[in-house]
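User: Before I run my own analysis I want an independent prediction to cross-check against. Here's the chain; please return only the structure tokens and, at the end, one sentence I can use as a sanity check.
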Amino acid sequence: MIIDSHCHAGKGDGLTGPWDTAAPLGKYLRRATQAGIDRTVLFAAFHSDYAVANREVARIVASDPDRFYGFAFVHPINDRGRVYSLIKIAVQRYGFCGIKVHRHDARITREICDVARGFGLPVLYDVMGEVSAVELLATEYPVNFIIPHLGSFADDWKAQQAFIDPLARHPNVYTDTSGVRRFDLLEQAVQRAGAHKILFGSDGPWLHPGVELAKVRALGLPRSDEKLVLGGNLLRLIARVHVPSLPVRMLPHAARVPASATDPWLGELLPQ
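Assistant: Structure tokens:
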């Protein structure tokens, strides 16, 4: 079974670009079927209210539950203080099996990580090239973090090269193949971290799933390794999802997100 672990779906509520306007699945599904892709992980386009966006994704998943998995998108700032309730609804009512966070919205928070740990959910976190954060996440939380695009959709080869080290060292750090253009780095990631740390993803519907799948095929992996990349790894990561019997215990400061962040050693404002 081939599973695309990275695809957006539904309407955004902005008009900045395709990412926050609409993610229609019509062409994507035709292309995925032609490529032999059996199932797809869906999550919302960018939205100012992910409770609304997640509901729309839930309707799409429910329309064909044998074809789709759902991940709940959350905003580290806008959803501050309600992440637990959003995720409980997503898991219990929608049957979702992961969390999506994007650095474009804001940096991931302890609140999100605590909730992910409580529900046994993997977190797909697009760091937008801030790969140094991966070291902190991996050592602070026994949560499986999927860092898509080998750390940078923007083709920042320095960030991607730097990311391969924590990918190889930390057992709870994974990546996906979506949008990775430098094939040698993808090949290096497999060689150093192992096929068990790589997930096939397309970043559909905007990227062609067949083209993205061809990259995985071009790696020339042994059949057992290719099966892990094409679906086995994703299934393993979502196998422990559950609703906790007690509310998730979060650190007192978990819901606080500073308006700006400074490096205490340098006193400089960090990029937001």
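Sanity check: The two ends are 40 Å apart (CA to CA).
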